[in-house]
Task: inverse folding
């Protein structure tokens, strides 16, 4: 037990430091920066969820922005129509997206690699159009407004509390039987089946969990934009962003996710003031360029970099 | 056949046998039936005829982009998510050349050349280093290119609508009571000429043979002296050319040029490529025409679908094809041996 503790000490210390910094941040930052930090927390949840699916069970998804949209609209509609407690709507968003993820995971069983990428991409493009079609219920292009709005500090607190809970949950799930099954499926489906793992169960389950995480992130995403759920907020760009975040974080590891979330949460804001390009388009140029560079230079993302540094420190 | 079920056969034999048993005949029947349906419908109703012709024209655009996707898939076994944005960017190059005083067709051919160079460069610079790593890594790189190209176009040309003169004028042919815009005939003609040229390149030249060999059996091709790397880069170049054709022909049918030109078309092209079987060039064209006509008739005749639900409908269609017949109409079923 003590040896286990000593071996885990660096990880525990770094977790404690991160937690301490997160608690202290709201006292140090301006309100605008707190909202940015909340944004990072929201992306943290979504990237964590995507990493469970893509990094651990080996199924690619370019459609997680659509699950975020479902979660966001769940919160907005429930709050508008039933004045429901906002935290409760997040729990419901988690549940609804979990079920939706299981349902979408079923066809995904027959797809893999590029085919799954295609199907989820089409999903990401399709979902934001639904509010335009059913505009009486889902508000059309104008969006849905929650019945009450919350402060940046509220979003910050709830986002990072959820992040902490969901991180621990993911860690527990992934280190146990289920996590081993996910990794076995990722590394070789045939070997996994031969060792008695029910492929359909674990593959759809990974989809469900991952979608549920995205759903919570989506609720918070809507609350962070003054409670407005709008189709344009959930464009395909959001899905691409999440995938990029997961890649930067490093697929198949939980330790880089903070870096991945900060990358996609902060870079678009920071790069609006790039000297030469400036303004909105600078964001996309810098963002796209960074993605390509990171993929070329850091094959395993930030987590891979950490592992490499640790290896250097040991020798 | 059934008595041999337990005995392992050489893979070549097995696939060839399977193709003969369940392969092209039902597909041919299906296509003939669809063609007859469209013809009869067009003879009975002018609206139907108009919608069909329009659908074929936009379908040619989808087919052209789908063909680009298929070429890339055959060469590097990856879907290029940036293909649509690349096509959009090259259309902007054509716009710029016309602004600088070139005639439409001069700009057209100059753009195709530029697209070829661009596609080849992209493969060499960013795809090749990650290609051997994993499908996920390569897909993420193409996603990065998607965002990057979008950003560059917005930066250089801005997000507002640009207008180009239609190369085919605004006139129409009259066949009976059906008016067919010159534009649609022109779109179909341009796409088919380009596709035929690409087909001829693959079918009749030594270079094409090399490219096919490199795509099919890279190791064996390298052993007989094919420069596999170079062939794959050329494949990307050709795909970019076909994408540019799609972009240039999509622009007049949408009436204006904007950075979102190809985003919906990309999804239709995905559906078309999957419908045809991701490995089959002919399938991509047939799939493109089919999707174009189907969507156009749907929007015309089923008010519940409307233009907003076109994409979700396409998503449902894509999913259905993948579930029912993952190999598409013309694809080979992949046999995975343990």
Result:
């Amino acid at each position: 037990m003590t040896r286990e503790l000593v071996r885990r000490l660096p990880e525990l210390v770094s977790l404690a430091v991160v937690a301490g910094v997160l608690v202290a941040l709201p006292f140090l930052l301006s309100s605008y920066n707190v909202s940015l930090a909340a944004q990072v927390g929201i992306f943290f949840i979504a990237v964590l969820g995507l990493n469970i699916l893509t990094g651990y069970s080996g199924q690619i998804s370019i459609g997680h922005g659509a699950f975020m949209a479902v979660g966001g609209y769940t919160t907005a509609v429930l709050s508008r129509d039933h004045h429901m407690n906002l935290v409760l709507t997040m729990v419901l968003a988690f549940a609804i997206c979990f079920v939706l993820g299981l349902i979408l995971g079923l066809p995904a069983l027959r797809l893999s690699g590029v085919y799954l990428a295609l199907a989820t991409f089409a999903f990401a493009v399709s979902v934001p159009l639904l509010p335009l079609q059913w505009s009486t219920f889902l508000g059309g292009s104008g969006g849905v407004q929650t019945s009450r709005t919350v402060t940046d500090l509220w979003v910050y607190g709830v986002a990072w509390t959820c992040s902490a809970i969901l991180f621990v949950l993911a860690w527990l799930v992934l280190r146990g039987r289920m996590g081993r099954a996910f990794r076995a499926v990722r590394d070789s489906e045939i070997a996994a089946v031969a060792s008695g793992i029910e492929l359909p169960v674990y593959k759809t389950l990974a989809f469900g969990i991952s979608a549920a995480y995205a759903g919570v992130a989506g609720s918070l995403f809507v609350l962070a934009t003054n409670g407005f759920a709008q189709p344009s907020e959930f464009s395909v760009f959001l899905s691409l962003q999440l995938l990029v975040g997961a890649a930067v974080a490093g697929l198949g590891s939980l330790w880089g996710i903070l870096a991945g979330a900060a990358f996609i949460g902060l870079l678009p804001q920071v790069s609006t003031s790039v000297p030469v390009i400036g303004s909105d388009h600078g964001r996309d140029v810098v963002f796209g360029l960074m993605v390509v560079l990171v993929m070329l230079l850091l094959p395993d993302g930030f987590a891979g970099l950490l592992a490499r540094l640790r290896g250097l420190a040991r020798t | 056949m059934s008595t041999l079920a337990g005995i392992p056969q050489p893979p070549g034999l097995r696939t060839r046998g399977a193709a003969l048993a369940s392969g092209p005949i039902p597909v041919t029947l299906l296509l003939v039936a669809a063609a007859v349906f469209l013809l009869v419908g067009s003879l009975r109703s002018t609206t139907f005829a108009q919608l069909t012709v329009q659908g074929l024209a936009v379908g040619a655009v989808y087919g052209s982009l789908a063909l680009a996707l298929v070429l890339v898939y055959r060469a590097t076994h990856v879907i290029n998510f940036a293909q649509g944005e690349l096509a959009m960017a090259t259309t902007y190059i054509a716009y710029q050349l016309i602004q600088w005083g070139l005639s439409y067709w001069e700009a057209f051919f100059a753009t195709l050349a530029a697209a070829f160079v661009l596609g080849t460069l992209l493969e060499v610079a960013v795809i090749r280093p990650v290609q051997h790593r994993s499908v996920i890594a390569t897909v993420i790189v193409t996603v990065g290119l998607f965002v990057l190209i979008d950003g560059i176009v917005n930066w250089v040309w801005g997000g507002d609508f640009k207008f180009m003169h239609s190369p085919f004028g605004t006139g129409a042919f009259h066949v009976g009571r059906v008016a067919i815009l010159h534009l649609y005939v022109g779109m179909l003609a341009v796409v088919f000429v380009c596709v035929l040229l690409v087909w001829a390149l693959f079918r009749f030249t030594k270079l094409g043979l090399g490219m096919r060999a490199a795509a099919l059996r890279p190791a064996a091709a390298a052993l007989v002296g094919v420069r596999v790397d170079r062939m794959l880069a050329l494949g990307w170049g050709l795909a970019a050319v076909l994408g540019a054709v799609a972009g240039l022909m999509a622009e007049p049918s949408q009436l204006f040029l904007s950075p979102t030109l190809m985003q919906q078309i990309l999804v239709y092209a995905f559906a078309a490529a999957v419908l045809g079987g991701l490995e089959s060039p002919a399938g991509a064209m047939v799939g493109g025409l089919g999707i174009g006509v189907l969507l156009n008739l749907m929007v015309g005749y089923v008010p519940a679908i409307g233009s907003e639900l076109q994409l979700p409908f396409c998503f449902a269609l894509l999913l259905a094809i993948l579930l029912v017949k993952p190999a598409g109409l013309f694809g080979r079923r992949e046999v995975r041996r343990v």
